[in-house]
Amino acid sequence: MDIEGASAIVTGGAGGLGAATARRLVSLGVSVVIADLAEDAGGRLADELGPAARFVRTDVTDESSMRAAVDAASESGPLRIAVAAHGGPVAGSRILDRSNQPYDLDVFRRTLDIYLVGTFNALRLSAARMVEAPALDSGQRGVVINTASIAAFEGQIGQSDYAAAKGGVVGLGLVAARDLAPLGIRVMTIAPGTFFTPAFQMSEEDAQERWGGAIPNPRRMGRPDEYARLVQAIAENDYLNGEVIRIDGAHRFGPR
């Protein structure tokens, strides 16, 4: 798919994997809506990237908020790329605590709402707008790229809500690709391993010392631009569809 001149929406676009994706897409001639709740970071990134980027405060779990972001993306050209790279709080607790009290059901629901329901909300609304765009010579109209995690396959102790949500994102991918295939819209899923982002709230050197040694090869944490380059490859290659790509340096999570 020729992406130059197209528009894109990146949820979670204000930081980490999303910000790297926004930078790369803009460098390729794509207009990008940075859809995020982080107004300061999103505004700074939009200023950095210039007129091809626009920040829109977006709550992915809210229909009207997500619709507004999709509308904004469509103002700059046909919406052909939607990347769900948003994050959110994760409590990280066992199903039963040390006193054998059960995990808070509202916290579990909140995690699924952000990571799974929010991803589906972005997918369905973006696809509804993509189908309005004229098909390219290849017959393609666009691509939706969702973000799971290797925790979807090897969830660690205390990750019941996060692993369940990301597992849901994985399960959604092929069904969505089949649903949208007649319309020329592809759906792909990226499952990152341990990537260094601002969410770690520590220096890259400290994070690398703590977690980087567990990665087989290369022996370091992932870099956000490596995720962004994979987004580019997926967007440009029409035959990538309905699949999950792990990007993890051959890392497999252990129990802890």
Could you spell the SSE succession in H and E letters?
A: EHEHEHEHEHEHHE
CATH superfamily: NAD(P)-binding Rossmann-like Domain
CATH topology: Rossmann fold
Any idea what the radius of gyration is?
18 Å
- Sheet with the most strands, sense and barrel status: 7 strands, parallel
Description:
The chain is of the alpha/beta class and 256 residues long. It has helices spanning 16-27, 39-49, 63-74, 105-130, 160-180, 204-211, 224-236, and strands at 7-11, 31-36, 53-57, 79-84, 142-147, 185-192, 244-247. It has a single domain (7-246), classed as NAD(P)-binding Rossmann-like Domain (Rossmann fold, 3-Layer(aba) Sandwich). It contains 7 helices and 7 strands; from the N terminus they run βαβαβαβαβαβααβ. Helix 1 (16-27) packs across helix 7, helix 3 (63-74) runs parallel beside helix 4 and helix 4 runs parallel beside helix 5 (160-180). The protein is globular, with a radius of gyration of 18 Å. The termini are far apart.
Features:
alpha/beta, 40% helix, globular, Rossmann fold, 256 residues, 7 strands
Layout of strands and helices, then pairs:
Layout: E1 7-11, H1 16-27, E2 31-36, H2 39-49, E3 53-57, H3 63-74, E4 79-84, H4 105-130, E5 142-147, H5 160-180, E6 185-192, H6 204-211, H7 224-236, E7 244-247
Parallel strand pairs: 1-2, 1-4, 2-3, 4-5, 5-6, 6-7
